[in-house]
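Homework help board

Subject: predicted structure for assignment chain

Our instructor gave us this sequence and asked us to write out the predicted structure in token form, then describe one feature. I got the tokens but I'm not sure how to describe them. Can anyone check?
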Amino acid sequence: MQISHEAICLSLYDPRRRQAIDRSLTQRLRSARPMRRPKLTRRPTGRGIIRGMVSITGRPAEVEDRKVPGHREGDLVMGTRPSAVATLVARTSRYTAMVALPDGIKAEQVTPHLTRSLLGIPPQIRRTLT
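My token output:
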């Protein structure tokens, strides 16, 4: 016989059985809360929210077909702390440029290094960065 962890939690937190189940059992749960809080009612902390972010669907349609040069994809490759490298990959030719990030991986620390690398590319083949 098998039972999922969700079924156990639902039975412990079911409001119809609140008096039937001993409340000390909820103390053994990982959260140790007597009441269950649904994800929708949790208050946002502001973490993980990018200010001024443009959705990937908002980029030009010409980027998807990979025929127009100048569009690039960027990524962050992290090694053992504190080493990190940013990669810039051209979508048409797949030419990859690696940018060292000696100052850190936060946006304020990465921006100057990426800007310096992108300014080294001629303006006619420098369009967007995703």
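Reply (TA_rk): Your tokens look well-formed. For the description, you could write something like this. The two ends are 49 Å apart (CA to CA). That's the kind of observation they're looking for.
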